[in-house]
Amino acid sequence: VDLICCEKLHGIEGENFTIKLNVNQPMSESIWKKDKDKVAEWQEKGSVKFYGSLEGRAFFNEENGDLTIFNLQKNDSGTYVFEYLDSEGIINDTDFFSLLLDGFTEPAISCNTTANDNKFRCATDFHLPVNYTWKIGNMIYSSEGQEISISKNYDPSTEVTCSAKYSQTEKSSQINLTQCSR
């Protein structure tokens, strides 16, 4: 029987990623599985044993069941499930989590000159919402949007930088105002 999935989680290759749980009762033993294969096992008063690709790259929080994977790799994508034995001897399953690894490329900056200002647009090919920060010369502007307008009074040699950030990964691109006025 295939199980219908699940909460989708998104990680970026190379980052550390934690699958957070809401286990609020004492556990006496637990197992994390990825695609039906055991990847972590813990027994009360014992150490955590990791298997396969997580060996040496993961941390298990014995208090709440959270699993942290260090330096995410493409083969970490998959469906994860957490099973634990509570203090009354009952086996519990958590929700299933589908971990998807996404690529994150540098943003592209485009500009449009109008009679009064220069309008800049920053775009990524990333399919999840990102946070943008703009740097114009030495001034930094946080913006939730992909666009910013600045006066035409800036020196033509001024650099405009757009940074796009998701999770712990941030990538930037820049353009010179002279490139905008062409």
UniProtKB/TrEMBL annotation:
Protein's cellular compartments: Membrane
Record-level GO cellular component terms: cell surface; membrane
GO molecular function: signaling receptor binding
Keyword field: Glycoprotein, Membrane, Signal
Domain Natural killer cell receptor 2B4 immunoglobulin span(s) in chain numbering: 7-102
SUPFAM superfamilies linked to this entry: Immunoglobulin
Any Pfam family: Receptor_2B4
Record InterPro entries: CD2/SLAM_rcpt (IPR015631), Ig-like_dom_sf (IPR036179), Ig-like_fold (IPR013783), NK_rcpt_2B4_Ig_dom (IPR024303)
The protein's name in its UniProt record: LFA3 protein
UniProt organism field: Tricholaema leucomelas (pied barbet)
